[in-house]
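Researcher: Please translate sequence to structure tokens.
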Amino acid sequence: MNDTFPKLLLRNARQFADRPAIREKDLGIWQTWSWQEMHDEVLDFANGLASLGLKRGDKLAIIGTNRPRLYWGICAAQCLGAIPVPVYADSVAEELRYVLDHAEASIVLAEDQEQVDKVLEVKQDVGHVTGIIYDDTRGLKDYPESFLHDFAEVQVRGRKHAKEHPDFLQQEIEKGQGSDIAIILYTSGTTGKPKGVVLTHDNVLITSLNSAKEDRLTEKEDMLSYLPLAWVGDHIFSYGQAYVTGMCSNCPESQATVHWDIREIGPTYYFAPPRVFEQLLTNVMIRMEDASRLKQRLFHHFMEVAKRCGTDILDGNHVPLMDRIAYKIGDLLVYAPLKNTMGFSRIRVAYTAGEAIGPEIFDFFRSLGVNIKQLYGQTEAAVFITAQPDGEVYADTVGKPSPEVEVKITDDGEVIYKSPGVFQCYYKNDEATREAKNEEGWVMTGDAGYFDDKGHLKIIDRAKDVGKLKNGALFAPKYIENKLKFFPEIKEAVALGRDMDYVSLIVNIDLDAVGNWAERNNIAYSSYQELAAHSRIYAMIKANIEQVNRDLSEDSVLSDCQIHRFLILHKELDADDGELTRTRKVRRRIIAEKYDVLINAFYSGATQCQISTEVTFEDGKKGTIDGDIRIEDTETYEPLKAAS
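Model: Translation complete:
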């Protein structure tokens, strides 16, 4: 019975022996390992880990970006019954220290010198770490520590161990069961310290298999593996579904080269959070601003055609012949070249999740013929709670319950669910486990939502974030923020208004989009802060906000959520400063505490406010940025429908 990842590895090495299992672009060249070759690499490393003392129940921490050897480390640990614990590659020392200590990691697998240095910095505070293994040897040759090991050398030890104990690893693999812990994934810590989500092989594999069947995924798919290794989305799409289907995961050369690498791979299966699709659309619009007038006219003309009939063509609906002909011409001149530029030419299924995507962004990609769909999930569910079936794809829903998943809405409007993917517990946190999961196995998502008349789930906001204005009107900050982030000039937005007279807004501009606009308009600037304070940038953002206000005025429920005042923050919100999680979710409590002087200024009627803000630089040092920030009023509009 193939109920664990190591058992699936053995199956895939037999069934898909010569098919590509994983690729990596290194020094500009794609390197490929077949399932048989990956099987050999993993087993050598597993034996090597055993020779270093890793045993059943121990933790192997893994820190780095998407690299074949780090993925192999996950399975190698599982071969021994040990538990892999991925850590976000951009974690600062304190975050790394917390996870290593809390998870009680005994060995760390690190990508390169940068990650090794971080582990060495905190190792003295985490006494149970006995060894560090590194993948990339550059810069590490002269490190004197005896507990440092080269990945390849560990594999050499592993081959020796296998000769001395020929039946050891096979017996360990056979001991494994679906109910065993497969991995501990730490949440991003939106509301406090990260929690270690304990998932079994059954949790991950049953969910991966069900979702793969739903989208008819096969061993012929190519997946781009570029999202954080420690994030549950990457673990399901690049690892779980890869093992159950036999498809190939492709690791880019670096985060900086993803845009080029995706074009070379041409994935057939793709996942990205909304911010990636937002950035792609921003880049398209920036390029069109720099294009010739003829190209601009062609682009806008055929995008109108795509808007009119592209989505219907994708969904197989009836489309008039003349529209089909116009769309074919548009595909030849605009859509196909544009998809090729983005690396989307071969995509058969694409998903987005993590937060709501702007309807305009969603429709833009679908109108090009990209089968992008939305899903709703959590780390605690092994991702899948709901997903959109083919032919039932709507911009304002997150789909229907996934196979074997039950979803209910409580009397308070909170979404709860049961599924084969439901996590076992939060590691060493029984109280948090009881708060999240009841005795019947129902998990409280913390999200407010409802089912529409098509049976699709709609998520309004985080249940704890949905509040009311002083007049009793509903206030849903995330809903407002997502509408604003459709504009390429706005990178982040934080809406404020709970228990207040009106809604106010903190804005982060997108430096690429706004910087490009500034250069075209001969506006000189030397820093983000200088650009953010420019009067013409304020006018641009104000126009964006007022467009959202017009849209909100037509919403019978949220018309009172129109934005009355805004400011452009003097710095970018940053995970290193605690303002965002590592998956770029806003930490509202931190924002409220850190920028309370600005929030008070909003509601005191002030038009200017001075602030000094502590920041963390790339080298980990602290500093401050001072700002004299302008606060502006915006126009609001009479509701077109009576508020209910």
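Researcher: Any highlights?
Model: Residues 466-633 form a domain with the GMP Synthetase; Chain A, domain 3 fold (CATH 3.30.300.30).
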